[in-house]
Amino acid sequence: MSSTANAPVTVTDQVADQDRAPASEREPATIWASREYRAWFAGDLLQDLGAGIAMFAFPLVCLAVTGSPVHAGTVGFFQGAGTLLGILPGGVLADRHNRRTLRLVSSGLGVLAQLALVALLLTGTANVANLAALAFLDRLRNSLLSPASNSMLKQVVPGRLLPNAVAANQGRDAAVTLATGPAGGALLAIHLYVPALAQIIGQLASMGATLLMRGDYRPGRSCGDECSGRAGCPENSENSASSISTGRISRALAEFNESLRWIWDRTAVRVLLICACLLNLGWAGMMMSVTLGLADRGVEPALIGLLATALGCGALAGAVVAAKVVARVASGVLIVAGFLMCAGVVALVPFLPGLGWIGAVYALMGLIIPAVNAAVMGLVTLMTPNELMGRVGSVSQFFSSGAAAFAPALAGWGIGALGWELTQSAFAFPTALAAFAMLASAQVRRIPASPQWENYLEETGALSARD
């Protein structure tokens, strides 16, 4: 979803004369004591605020322009295709190039995409074809370049602070969700192009925050001496993709295969990704079918946006205690409970009598989302070698969220062919399957609370790729 995960990650405080110092030389006491983390966090927050407003508004803009949920679904299909095509190459880019530079390029191209949307809407030339083309290109841009930002996190904070950083990010996402729905609805009431202006402002502000970062964010720079001779290190390993001399395509495929092997060797990660794929498809599809269905019935965008506010309120409350919950409750228990709860919510929503009830259930679900995401993302981030962060993150996103990228298309087409209620009910099947599969996984159920993660990973051999 955001880009709830959107799934699913150490440079510390640095002064001008030690921009390229190894992360291990200086460690902040807390994440907020790190100047680099504050700049990274601000950049992500500002970008997400603008993007969240635009993402909430864009399906409603398409519906207003085309007048049909089916046509809005068609635009959503190309949007999903752009997302899916860029995810895997994006991970390779993040592990090859300076991640700070990639984040700056992403923001700059995002500004250009939204300027094009504003021009189409102001001139009255927007239609299904050009909206679909623009949505495809913008999502391709995002999925190609956004892995760089999350891949920076392990270089920004030390490993012991990763659970806190991930929990803080969940709080940020909750605050964004809280604000973007009502803001998107209010801005739509002014004009269809105004939400795009909000994203332009967010992207520009994010560029400013990223420019304040002074660390060295080239992949592998924090490997240090331990990288020598290790499979997968881009600097020194003879077996790594960087030593292959058969051309760029061969190197990219070798790097991609390396991340696949890394994931395949870890049963818990495989199970989490497969179940997340099913769960995210059902959850995103249910939410989009609710949004499009209400809009098609004439409900004001501002009222629809209050559903996102309800979800954000619950998530914000959950984010306040997420770090403590992850530290005290076994992550396996937390993850299974979250999946079962989500499956129950998706199954219940089609039978709720009104907007208020849907909002209440959204708020209830929001309470557990931050802790579940913090457990999953924190664990996977901890076990992933720095030089594989981009590729593992992209492969994880591809499998966990790839199907969900087409949720807007499935929701729009489903409403046109099957009706609102039946379309919502259909999305309950993948979430139920995901919940029961997660419940059946002994590997996931055994995951302990965060203070015991490293011992658990060593005992299960999940850290072997680092040796």
TrEMBL record:
<feature type="transmembrane region" description="Helical">
    <location>
        <begin position="72"/>
        <end position="94"/>
    </location>
</feature>
<keyword id="KW-1003">Cell membrane</keyword>
<dbReference type="GO" id="GO:0005886">
    <property type="term" value="C:plasma membrane"/>
</dbReference>
<feature type="transmembrane region" description="Helical">
    <location>
        <begin position="301"/>
        <end position="322"/>
    </location>
</feature>
<feature type="compositionally biased region" description="Polar residues">
    <location>
        <begin position="1"/>
        <end position="15"/>
    </location>
</feature>
<feature type="transmembrane region" description="Helical">
    <location>
        <begin position="395"/>
        <end position="420"/>
    </location>
</feature>
<dbReference type="InterPro" id="IPR036259">
    <property type="entry name" value="MFS_trans_sf"/>
</dbReference>
<feature type="transmembrane region" description="Helical">
    <location>
        <begin position="271"/>
        <end position="295"/>
    </location>
</feature>
<feature type="transmembrane region" description="Helical">
    <location>
        <begin position="426"/>
        <end position="444"/>
    </location>
</feature>
<feature type="domain" description="Major facilitator superfamily (MFS) profile">
    <location>
        <begin position="268"/>
        <end position="467"/>
    </location>
</feature>
<dbReference type="InterPro" id="IPR011701">
    <property type="entry name" value="MFS"/>
</dbReference>
<dbReference type="Pfam" id="PF07690">
    <property type="entry name" value="MFS_1"/>
</dbReference>
<dbReference type="GO" id="GO:0022857">
    <property type="term" value="F:transmembrane transporter activity"/>
</dbReference>
<keyword id="KW-0812">Transmembrane</keyword>
<feature type="transmembrane region" description="Helical">
    <location>
        <begin position="45"/>
        <end position="66"/>
    </location>
</feature>
<keyword id="KW-0472">Membrane</keyword>
<protein>
    <recommendedName>
        <fullName>Major facilitator superfamily (MFS) profile domain-containing protein</fullName>
    </recommendedName>
</protein>
<feature type="transmembrane region" description="Helical">
    <location>
        <begin position="190"/>
        <end position="212"/>
    </location>
</feature>
<feature type="transmembrane region" description="Helical">
    <location>
        <begin position="115"/>
        <end position="137"/>
    </location>
</feature>
<feature type="region of interest" description="Disordered">
    <location>
        <begin position="1"/>
        <end position="27"/>
    </location>
</feature>
<feature type="transmembrane region" description="Helical">
    <location>
        <begin position="329"/>
        <end position="351"/>
    </location>
</feature>
<dbReference type="InterPro" id="IPR020846">
    <property type="entry name" value="MFS_dom"/>
</dbReference>
<keyword id="KW-1133">Transmembrane helix</keyword>
<feature type="transmembrane region" description="Helical">
    <location>
        <begin position="357"/>
        <end position="383"/>
    </location>
</feature>
<feature type="compositionally biased region" description="Basic and acidic residues">
    <location>
        <begin position="17"/>
        <end position="27"/>
    </location>
</feature>
